Each structure stands twice: as structure tokens, then as C-alpha cells.
Amino acid sequence: MPRIRAAVCTAFGAPLEIEELDLRAPGPGEIEVAIEAVAICHSDIHYAEGSFPSRLPCVLGHEAAGRVTAHGPGVTGPAIGSRVVVTLVRFCGACPACLSGHSTICRDFDRADTPLARPDGTPVWNEMETAAFAERVVVHATQCVAVTEEIPADRAALLGCGVVTGVGAVVNAGALRPGEDVVVIGAGGVGLNAIQGARIAGARRIVAVDVSQSKLSDAAAFGATDGVLATDPSPWRRVAKALGRAADLCIVTVGATAAYDAAPRYVGWGGRIVMVGMPAAGETAAYEPLKAAFTGQRLIGSKMGDAVIARDIPWMADLYAQGRLELDALVSRHWTFDQINDAMADTEAGGARRNVIVF
Ligand SMILES: [Zn+2]
Ligand SMILES: [Zn+2]
Questions:
Q1: Strand, coil or helix: what is 144?
Q2: Whether residue 34 is found in the same domain as residue 118
Q3: What are the tens digits of pLDDT across the range 219-261?
Q4: Which of 170, 199, 247, 332 lies in disulfide reach of 223, CB 3.0 to 4.6 Å?
Q5: Around Cβ 351, how many Cβ atoms within 10 Å?
């Protein structure tokens, strides 16, 4: 049983502690991956702060890439030595959610098991079924997708969550049709990917809404045709002015309930609102049911961009290789594993697109 270094969350709101843990060998259907790069996602911060329900002690980290080092019984791929993107999307492939193409919401697996333990035998939870803030992981084989060697590990890692979540929110959950108008609320890591997803899928105009002028400049570089400051007293009016009408699709990528309160104002009759950003557990938003019922507006929850990872990750990796999907500019900074708390703090401060830990 390998002993690995992992960043352990021992108390909510406290810095992660790097500990040596035992990682059990992969069981049936599982594989072991040596992590090369892991990005910090806002969900990791929510868990570390206790904003999402969790069990302690745990290891976070779910946007990763690495090389396959061992197969459990019954696993035939990806091949040992191959580069894989590691995601939190664990699925059974046989339940109604999986069979209807929604494997991101499959719940048909056992969360009671964890491959990690302290040397004294105390279990350490693999939060989000991944635990990639560590030198190695043991995950279910369905969570890994092989990608070409052309894509560097720090870029490949981003495909594991932020990129599929943003692009998928537009293409899968939002079902954007070419020529439609899109507004993306929040131009952070996920928002920029929603913007490039809208560009790739053929939107007519893409308006970014953010509280920061510098993030609106980032948005323009990723394909936004217009930018509106969220601090405007009625940003939805400015968006409608830019479009000449209300939007067809609004993607909410921030976890602020105020953004959810405002979202229906951006879309017109039949408009769709895709809910991606995750406020803390227990927070609520208000909307007017009459308006949605009368105008045919739809609220669509979207976890991990409704991605079918074995289809969407190779697609996005290939677009990157062709120069049609931007990943390089998503990486704000590289950090060592020992700097993980500084990298988390930098992400929490809100300026970063993606901070990536490189092993
Ligand atoms: Zn994430
Ligand atoms: Zn399933």
C-alpha cells in the first residue's frame, strides 16, 4: 500500500495540512493515477469552509490530470502510463440518469468507502469521490478519460471541471442553437468557459456581466462581444440594449444569490436560465413564478455542464490542439504542492482564473 502526501482538511475554515496517508490498492472497477497537476476550483473552497455538507477529515481536489499507474480487477483502460483527466463524475452507466445521458447526476454508487486512511487507520474521506490534492488517487475508472500527449498536464487538468462545466452549461444544458443570444453572469474560470462555449456553438452575441472591469476585458478575449458591469443599477437593461432585445440564454456562473434573483430579467419569452454557480447550502433566491409560467421561461440546473465526459473531454482536448479552445490563458499561476494554502487563498480572493498545483 503506497504512502502518499495529501493536503487534508481537518477543520472547516482552517488551512489544509499536508499529511502522509495510506492509499489502498485499486479495487474492482478502480484505477490508480499519479497526479501531475490539479487546479483549485471554487467548490474546493466551499467544502474547505464548510459551506457545503462534508465529512472530516477529508481530502479535496477534483480538477486534475495525471498518469495511470495501476488497474483494479476488471479494468481494461485507460492503459497504464497514459495521461488521463480525472473528474468527480463517477457513474454506474446503468441507472435511469446514466441511460438518459445525465451521468453527472448518477447517485448509484457507494459513498461509504474511501481509499484513504491515516497510518493509525483513521479513515480520511475522498470528498467529491476524487481527493486529488494528493500525489496519487484511487478513483473509479469511469472518472478518468484518456487524452492525447499533446495537451500538457496543467492544461488537461482544467478539462476535469471548470472547462466542461462552462462549455457544457451552454452546449449541453443550455442547448444553444447557432444565432441565439447569450448572457453570461460572472467572467471567472467557469464564466470564461461558458463564453468560449457560446462562441464555439455559434451564438450571435455574447454579453458578459461582471462586477470587475478587468474580468470584462478577459471575457472579451474569450469571445464576449459585449461587457456590462454588474454594478450598474439595471445591468439587464444594458444587456438588452447591447443585444437589441432580451437574451435567449442566461448562464449564471457565480454562487451569489443576487445574481440568481436578477437572472430572469435578462431573458425574453421562452428564455432559458442555466444555473451553474453554487451558493452556500441553505441560501435561497426569489423569482416570480407567474412570469416564468406566462412567458415560458425555464430554469435549468446544471451539474458539471451535464457533460458526458468520455464524449466531451476528448472533443475539447482536440479543439485545444486545433487552437479553437483556449486553455493556456485560463492558467493564472502555477504553484507547488507545499503552497496549496496560498493558492487556495489566491483563488478565494477572486482575481484568479485558475490556480494550478503542479507536482
Ligand atoms: Zn469544480
Ligand atoms: Zn448511473
A1: strand
A2: yes
A3: 999 999 999 999 999 999 999 999 999 999 999 999 999 999 9
A4: 199
A5: 12
